[in-house]
Amino acid sequence: MPMKDTLKSEIEKFAIVYNQENLKDGVRFFVYPINFTELHNLLKKLSKQYDVRVHSSLGGLVVEIRESKDRIWINIVLLIATFFSTTLMGATMFGTFDIIGGIEYSMAIMFVLGFHEMGHYFFARRWGMKTSLPYFIPFPSLIGTLGAVIKHRGVIPSRKALFDVGVSGPIFGIIASSIVTYIGLKMEFKPIQNGEIMLVLGIPPLFDFIAKIAGFNGYFIHPVAFAGWVGMFVTFLNLIPVGQLDGGHILRAMIGMKADYISKIIPLLLIIVGLITNSSIWLFWGLITTFFAMQRHPKMDDESPLDFKRIFIGIITFAIGLSCFTPVPFRVNV
C-alpha cells in the first residue's frame, strides 16, 4: 500500500497515532480519537476504497486499513461445493439414496440460507457499505452445510444503517423459510423405514401455523419442509440479542449502548433454559453466546436515534423470532 504515510497524516488530523504496524496488504494504526465524529467520517470515506476495520483496545481504537480485493471465484467454488454437500446429505433423508430428492432439499436449504444473507447484502449496499457476496460453507453435517455468511467492510455509518442491515437478514430469511415450509408440507413423503435412527423435531409456533394453512396432518415431513424448519431455527438463533448476532445488531441500534447489559444476561438465561428443558443445545448455545457477548460494537453515530417505524419493525422482528422458538428443538429416537 503506497499511501501509508498519507493515510497516517489524514488520521492524525483527528486522532493521536501512538503506534503503527505494517501489514502485508495494508497498515494497522493504534489511535486515541481527538475528534471522533470527524475520524468516523474519514474512515467512512476510506471504506469506499479500502477494507477498513475498527475495534476497541486499551481505551483507544485499532484501525486496520487493507487493500480491498474481491475474489468472486471463492464464492462460486463454495457455492458449488455446498450444493454437492447438501444434495448428498438430502439424498440420505429418504431411507434410500434419492438423488432427485437430495437436489430438491439442496435447492430449498440454499434458498433459505442464501436469501437471509442477500437481505443483509442488499441493505448494506443501499447504505453504501462495502460487503461481499454470500460465502456458503459446505460441511458433511445433518443439513450438509454450516450456513452462509457475508463480510462487511468499513465502518457502519449510523444506527439506522446498523438496524437496516441487521434486521433485513432475519426478515428475508423468515419469508424464505415460510415459503419453503409451505411447499415442503404440500409434498408427499413417506420415508422407507429400515431401523435407522429417527430425528424427532420440536415444532415452533410459526411452523405449526403454516402446517395448519397447508392442511398438513401427517407425521413425517418432506426434507424440503425440514429445510424450512432449519431456516426458522437459524432465524431464532440469529435473533438472540447478543454481540455480533443479528439480534445484537438490532438491539444495539434500537437502544444504544444499553444493549451491552442485555447482551451479558442472555447467555445465562439460555443456560437456565437448557437446564430446565434438559436440552443440551441451549446449554451449548449459552456457552457460545458468552463469547459473542464479549464482542462489543464499535463506536458509531449515536446522536441520531431510530424513528418509530424502525422501532416498530424491530419489535415485530423479535416477536417473529420468538415464534420460531421451541424448548426442545430435536431429539433422537433409536
Give an account of the 3D structure.
It is a single chain. The protein is α+β, with helices and mostly antiparallel strands. It folds into 2 domains: 4-67, General secretion pathway protein M, EpsM (Gyrase A, domain 2); 72-333, no CATH class. The protein is 53% helix and 16% strand. It contains 11 helices and 10 strands. It has a 4-stranded antiparallel β-sheet with strand order 1-2-4-3, covered by helices on one side. It has a two-stranded antiparallel ribbon with strand order 5-8. A hairpin with a 6-residue loop joins β6 and β7 (145-149). α3 (72-91) packs antiparallel against α4 (99-126), α4 (99-126) runs parallel beside α7 (223-238) and α8 (246-255) runs antiparallel to α11.
Strand content: 15-25%
Number of helices: 11
Q: What is the 3D form?
A: globular
Summed up, the domain count is 2
Mean of pLDDT: 87
User: Which strands sit side by side, in order, in the main sheet?
Assistant: 1-2-4-3
What is the N-to-C order of secondary-structure elements (H for helix, E for strand)?
Answer: HEEHEEHHEEEEHEHHHHHHE
Q: How many beta strands in the DSSP annotation?
A: 10
Largest sheet: 4 strands, antiparallel
Secondary-structure class: alpha+beta
Contiguous low-pLDDT stretches (5 residues minimum) are none
- Report, as a whole number of angstroms, the end-to-end distance: 59 Å
Percentage of residues assigned to helices: 40-55%
Radius of gyration: 22 Å
